[in-house]
Design goal:
GO terms for molecular function: mRNA 3'-UTR AU-rich region binding; NADPH binding; quinone reductase (NADPH) activity. The chain is of the alpha/beta class. The chain has helices at residues 42-49, 114-134, 151-162, 174-181, 196-203, 223-226, 250-254, 272-287, 304-312; strands spanning 3-7, 16-20, 30-39, 59-60, 64-72, 84-88, 97-101, 105-107, 142-145, 166-171, 187-190, 209-214, 228-236, 259-261, 295-300, 319-323.
Length: 324
């Protein structure tokens, strides 16, 4: 019987319950996957705590994973048992097996492991759209990336550097600073010890940044706005420290006619053609050696509560996975 980590009542890490689940045969348009690796993300925490509302209770946590196709439902012709696949899908990922619509799947190239695939479909595709679609990073740009030693941060620093940008990152410890520097950062700011706004001004000699990528939220706002040059872009894509509080739109004017956006992955891969474009670009960057995937922590699926506690306490760096 399949097993999964479900949330029956939103709350702390203890809300994650590892238990058997019934799994019907795949329906029309569905594929059954035996999962080999599952990505761990802050969005999983948001659903667990109730910050993001699940469709109902109980629900299976988890939003990205990779595995092997073991059965297909009626009407599925482009996936077959034995195919290696990965996906991003809201909820349902923390499971040993699952059914999922084939439109959400991409095939993994031979040179991409299940472990890599499991952390690329949310984190990797997020970095793809942030740097290529939300703001097209080019060699003349200066970028600020908060939480530069996290799963998204390390990929974003590498890719921004590969695109030729000048990369400034913020981190919470010396060890994380060393990691960020080894993964593309030109300068790293220890936000617990330094005023990151003042350091950005110093590093840039007062010229500031073209774009700020902020997945931290409450604790880095409104400082992020003060790091932007006139007409710069504030990209708020996460809430690791809590949501950005409501603010007056006039603040964008007072900081130099700034732009601000709150993007999400689904709006950049809503069409299958967009999903495939992002995945192909991402996989090519990995295979060519332009990017590497730092997977620094692995937990058994049954220990998902421990993984969440570590993630929330900032005890992790790079990407983390759950192993069924």
């Amino acid at each position: 019987m399949a097993k999964a980590v479900r949330v029956h009542k939103v709350g702390g890490p203890e809300a994650l319950v590892y238990e058997p689940v019934d799994l019907a045969a795949p329906g029309p348009g569905e594929v059954r996957i035996r999962q080999h690796a599952i990505g761990l993300n802050f969005i999983d925490v948001y659903y667990r705590t109730g910050l993001y509302k699940a469709p109902g209770l109980p629900f299976i946590a988890g939003n990205e994973a990779a595995g092997e196709v073991i059965a297909v439902g009626p009407g599925v012709t482009n996936f077959h048992p034995g195919d290696r696949v990965a996906y991003y899908e809201n909820l349902g990922g923390y499971a040993t097996e699952r059914n999922i619509g084939w439109q959400r799947l991409v095939k993994l190239p031979d040179h991409i492991t299940y472990e890599q695939g499991a952390v690329l479909m949310l984190k990797g595709l997020t970095v793809w759209y942030l740097l290529h679609k939300t703001f097209k990073v080019e060699p003349h740009h200066r970028v600020l990336i908060h939480a530069a030693a996290g799963g998204i941060g390390l990929l974003a620093c590498q890719w921004a550097r590969a695109l030729g940008a000048h990369v400034i990152g913020t981190v919470g410890s010396k060890a994380k600073a060393d990691l960020a520097l080894a993964n593309g950062c030109d300068h790293v700011i220890l936000y617990n010890e330094e005023d990151f706004v003042g350091r950005v001004k110093q590093i840039s000699r007062g010229e500031l940044c073209d774009v700020v990528y902020d997945g931290v939220g409450k604790s880095t706002f409104p400082g992020s706005l003060s790091c932007l040059k006139p007409r710069g872009l504030f990209v708020s894509f996460g809430n690791a420290s809590g949501p950005v509080p409501p603010f007056s739109i006039a603040e964008l004017n007072s900081h130099g006619s700034l732009f601000a956006t709150r993007p999400k992955l689904n709006d950049y891969i809503g069409k299958r053609s967009e999903l495939l474009e992002g995945a192909d670009t991402l996989f090519s960057a990995i295979i060519s050696g332009k990017l590497h995937v730092p997977i620094n922590h692995a937990y058994a699926l049954k220990d998902a509560a421990k993984a969440h506690a570590d993630l929330e306490s900032r005890a992790t760096t790079g990407a983390s996975i759950l192993k069924p």
